[in-house]
Structures are given as structure tokens and as C-alpha cells.
UniProtKB/TrEMBL annotation:
<keyword id="KW-0808">Transferase</keyword>
<keyword id="KW-0328">Glycosyltransferase</keyword>
<protein>
    <recommendedName>
        <fullName>Purine nucleoside phosphorylase</fullName>
        <ecNumber>2.4.2.1</ecNumber>
    </recommendedName>
</protein>
<dbReference type="GO" id="GO:0009116">
    <property type="term" value="P:nucleoside metabolic process"/>
</dbReference>
<dbReference type="GO" id="GO:0005737">
    <property type="term" value="C:cytoplasm"/>
</dbReference>
<comment type="pathway">
    <text>Purine metabolism; purine nucleoside salvage.</text>
</comment>
<feature type="domain" description="Nucleoside phosphorylase">
    <location>
        <begin position="23"/>
        <end position="269"/>
    </location>
</feature>
<comment type="similarity">
    <text>Belongs to the PNP/MTAP phosphorylase family.</text>
</comment>
<dbReference type="GO" id="GO:0004731">
    <property type="term" value="F:purine-nucleoside phosphorylase activity"/>
</dbReference>
<comment type="function">
    <text>The purine nucleoside phosphorylases catalyze the phosphorolytic breakdown of the N-glycosidic bond in the beta-(deoxy)ribonucleoside molecules, with the formation of the corresponding free purine bases and pentose-1-phosphate.</text>
</comment>
<dbReference type="InterPro" id="IPR000845">
    <property type="entry name" value="Nucleoside_phosphorylase_d"/>
</dbReference>
<dbReference type="Pfam" id="PF01048">
    <property type="entry name" value="PNP_UDP_1"/>
</dbReference>
<dbReference type="InterPro" id="IPR011268">
    <property type="entry name" value="Purine_phosphorylase"/>
</dbReference>
<dbReference type="InterPro" id="IPR035994">
    <property type="entry name" value="Nucleoside_phosphorylase_sf"/>
</dbReference>
<dbReference type="InterPro" id="IPR011270">
    <property type="entry name" value="Pur_Nuc_Pase_Ino/Guo-sp"/>
</dbReference>
Amino acid sequence: MLDNIESTARYIKNRIGDFEPEVGIILGTGLGGLVKDIVVEKQLMYSNIPDFPISTLEFHSGKLIFGTLGGVKVVAMQGRLHYYEGYNMQQITFPVRVMKYLGIKTLYVSNASGSLNPDFKKGDLMVIADHINLQPQNPLIGRNYEELGPRFPDMSQPYQRTLIDKALSIAAANNITCHKGVYVAVTGPNLETKAEYTYLRIIGGDAVGMSTVPEVIVANHMGIPVFAISVLTDEGFTDVLEPVSLEEIIRVAEEAEPKLTLILKNLIAGN
């Protein structure tokens, strides 16, 4: 794996020249519009990058975007990878490891998720303060490379507290409804049953989704500070549970995206 990470990073560096990103960004379902605010210098299709997994979802673009956002050099994944696509955890998190080798110092992650907390409504944002991992594999299983990180990485602070506080302040200053909560990662791709929503709420979840946690584990393993934020696209409240479609999830995510983009832009720029 280490050889693949190094060779992929070399390939990318040969194509982006002396551009060295300070920040990595992973854009979730329906949230690729942040790219419009990036002054793009280079774009690479996943399919053209050696050993890079390709998103199989028609609504995920599959591009690495290099440019500046708020005066900061960034690399953005427009299209993320999921366990339910059939990839293993090492493949899903491979791009994070490559971004570290490209020079990123901080990772920003966004996703679309379902609300479990009755106080958190559809269309709101939630900054992730902690998570519960219910996915069946861990990206750190197998041989550990000390060059990447320790065998048993600490996860007492998986999300950077100073960035959480700054994001909540930015949201408040712009009259954006933004909560702080616990994200539960499940496998998917099916949405949850009524009983499962009840269970996830009982164990401490405020939102549920099918991504993010593997990338966060690997970022912590490599010593990369992480900020993560969810757009709450549906409500798993068991007393009023209604069917949800992918089209509705994407619609809500796209409507909320300007609020998320504002927070990320200001946070990355240090405002």
C-alpha cells in the first residue's frame, strides 16, 4: 500500500507542478458546488490517476480539483467513495493518504445525512463533534506502516475543537441554523428501518450517514486535523417517519449547499 500511495502522489505532483495544497476537501452527496468558488488551476479525473478508486455513483463527478479558495491552496475531491459501492476500507481512504503525501495540513469533510435528533430539522446543518462507527470494517486493519501513523491511534478528539467552535461562530454571525452533534456511520445503501432509527438515537446519535468515518479514522492515523459537517437531508423521527427518495435527499442538499459553502469558505480562509 505504501508504494502505491507514493507512486500515485508522484504521478499527481508531476501533473500539478509546484502546486502544494494546504487543505484537503471531501465533498459529499449533492454538495459538489463548492468547486464553483475555487479558483481552479488543475483538474484530474479519478479514472486517469493510477490506483485511484473511481466513484460508481452517477451523481458523484470523480475529479480532483486543485486551486485556491479564500486565498488558500486546496485539493478537493468532487465525488467521494462509499463502502456500499463494493470498495474495501483501504480503497475508500486511499485518496486521504495521497492528499497527505501531497502536503495537506487539514482535512475538511462534508456529507448528507439523516437527522435522528428531533431538534435538528431537514435542511439544517450539523457540525460533527464525535462519531459512532457501525461500519463492519476498519481502514486500519492489516499491516501498519509506521511511516503513516501508529498501530493504535488515539481517537479522543477525532474532530478539531477549535475548528468546530469557529464554524459555529461563523454560522451564528450569518444567521445559519447549525447544530453540533454525533454522527453515526452505517453501511447502507438502504436507508434505516423505524426500529433502526430508534436504536441509533438511543445509542447517542444525532445524525446517520454512510460515509465520513473511514476517512476521519485515516486522517487521525496520519495526524491530520479534521473538520466535518453534515447537511441534514431527511428526518428519522420514528413517530412521523416518512419514505425518502434519493431525489429528495439531493434536492435538500443542494438547497442547503450555499449555507455550507459559506461556512467552509470562511473557515478555510481563517475568517
